[in-house]
Amino acid sequence: MKKTALLLIVLPFLMYACSISYKFNGASLDYSKTKTIEIRDFPNQAPLVYPPLTQVFNDRIRDVFDRNTKLIFTTVSPDLEIEGEVTQYDLMPLSVQADAFAAETRLTMSVRMRFRNNVDPSQDKEETFTAFQDFDSSKMLTEVQDALIEELTKEIVDQIFNSTMSDW
Which of 104, 39, 30, 94 is nearest to 66 (CA)? Predict the structure, then answer.
């Protein structure tokens, strides 16, 4: 009886002392040093231009950083700066069949990103991120393009976020 009572008293303290905390947003920032960010528009400089792509990409990147960090957006002396451009947005036929027509088409998107950390310049970087989505060639690009750019921008923005905000 005494052991059970003692166990009931000690167990909550042990559980609290041994708790493990995880953050799944991937951000590892020191908010005492890094408080502000500027994300400039990423223009579409690819040979193939789909006008809504720029707006979708710019909205998504700002939204991801807003939701997953405590950083404040500013254009005046930011601690972090992110800028870049869409450099590739093109189609490539895949899986050529016996009748010489492609069964699938691949839409590929690449974004060049420049990251400046004005608090710790040793973390500055410039990288290119690429993602692709395949779709059935029997469909017109105009039928699937909006859904595809949602997936492509999501993947590339996640890559940018992980590259700039994670200390992995």
Answer: 39
